Predict the 3D structure of the following.
Amino acid sequence: MSLFNLPTRSTREADQTIVKKSKQLLKSAPSVIKGGKGGLMEKILTITAVVSQNLGKYADKYDCYRGVDVDKFIAYIDKCIENGIVSIDTETTGLNPLECIIAGVSLYTPGEKAIYVPINHVSYITGMKADNQIDSDIVKQQLSRLSTCLIIMHNAKFDIRIIQNQVGHYFTQVYWDTMLAAKLLNENEPAGLKVLHNKYCGQQDSKIWDFSSLFDGVIFTHIPINTGYIYAARDAEITYELYLFQKQYLDPNCCDEYKLEKVSKVFFNIEMPLVPVIAMIEDTGITIDRAFAATLSTKYNIELGDKEKAFYNVLDMYKNELLDYRKKNPNSKLSDPISISSNTQIAILLYDILKLPIVDKDKPRGTGEEIISQMDTPIAKAILDYRETAKLLSTYVDKLPKIINPKTGRIHCSFNQYGADTGRLSSSDPNMQNIPSKNKEIRKMFTAAEGYVLIGCDYSQQEPRILAHLSQDINLIQAYVEGKDIYSWCGSLVYKIPYDECKEYRIDGTKNPEGKKRRGAMKSIILGIMYDMGVASISEQLGIPKKEAQNIIDKFFASFPGVKKCIEETKQHAIQYGFVETVWGRKRRLPNMQLDPFELIYEAGKAGNFDPLFDEEEEVNNELSSETRQLYLSQLNNCRSWKEKDQIKARAKAEGITVKDNGGYIAEASRQCLNSRVQGSAADMTKLAMTAIGTDHELANLGYRLLLSVHDELIGECPIKNAKACGELVSKIMIKVADTLLVPMKCDAEITKEWYGEEIKIV
């Protein structure tokens, strides 16, 4: 069975149908109360009318417990405890758990109706809190009784934080997150609750539940309880139904039928224990040094002005070309002077005025960094220099102080537990993974709280060590066992010179330029191999000819044959099974590895020699003869250039044959094979470390709290007096979770006041 192989689908048509119906129903709905909020009332009345028409038949299927139903609510919790399982969902006014308001909580347990418990609905007429809702203290008390139950949620991290911050109860354990389960079963498809339920749980009338456009602009606390409870309660029910579908694939008792034992272990041992830890990290947040941020703002704004002047100085070199263009195109979109911030004007400058060659045929007028960086001209460099500083200002220096939470005085970024298809974490608001490491000033904006210090602990050469484990290459393993610097060690074997001559510093401490160059080359080679960058990219990075780069790569593979074997076996596995695995068993599905290089599609009647007298009632033969198919495939597979391939495609088209070239898809999937195993294993390792650190009682007693995860680095803070003990313990824990590897892991803990700041030596 193809799990979760969901194509992208648009709901625009369904949305438009719903809105159209709502407008028709509105004509017969009660008139808007005068003196009220007008537009809001109109929307509420529309929603009420549409929900009543579409969902009225479900009114008795779900239940709503109001203030007078506290005893019923308590009895329902009793039933949940008796069943030992419950699915929970929340309705809120927004997506920020620290700032939004919870409207209510939905619960479902087998054998009972799904229920909705309203907490903070308000009258859309008066703006006052609606009567007859259950008090949040009672909700807190009852939810706390569910500690013995298996808790099912969709995007559990969000609901945990909402209930913690808005109700006061913290779920320290969640049994099943249907969103994370979906990602583990197929990371290549969307993981929205309703999308997944519609596909896998056989909801025949799913369209009537789609209110995405109808609810737009209306917060749920304004939705009348008698209207909203059906919609809200159903979310808890379908979360449970989706769990039942997923259970057959991930439950340890039956997952072996689908050969998903390893994936099940990743789910229960890595992903689910991490959920409450990430919730805690997000709630904790991190401090920003406002004064330092203001200093940086002044500095970079001056720098931005200087770079803008530099751009116009370079532009003066082309004043004649500019003048000529303006004369010939009086109605052009060029301002005077040209706006460096306008992509439209930059495109005119580069392609129409300077007539620079097109770098990317798919983006013939592209102005992105990846395109302009390939243009070897002074104007391109000036544009990139300006953009670099502008991005630092807009994304970090000026933005970060503005998103400090007024209640906590800290920044609370959001972590996506499955941010990359490899399983790697990502973050947003701000994106911590994208904060430039070379510019240490930006990172110094992040600081420890008063009386605390930061403890940054990262895995030393995490991905190369994982490569050594995966490849089981004797020479790589030996280097780590002996505590060698891997890049210098590789240089020694590749260049066939002593190890010390490939190090950045000599034994006496003096700089060794040639050794640094050799070490740097090996680092580029190893990283290039792991990311399958190709000879062209590696040669460009090293600043050497392709032939020389290929020679070094060949020597590397000769010195480390296990690596080459690992790459070949990984790709063959992907071709045979359609996926690769991490050290811990996470799957990365690469279905494009199983594509045929070319697909031939014969469209009868499209050929140039089509007979116009052909009887349409006669059966049309859409099959391409095996001889013709084999001929074209043979020619295509033996092409030596893109031009030759295009000529063959043109000939085929003239005969009514469409050639679908899958080469690009296969090449992209091929590049991801080894990288998915290495990066995915690194993600698994880091997640295990986060959970172990975030749940360690000794660290908690020392006042340590985990703040950030940035690739292979974990950052936390603790009281100054406990810094030494916390640093040693964090490093010890991180090394311990990596003991699965064949090579020893090394972690470097650094104690500072600010991120990337001066190290504090504590005896």
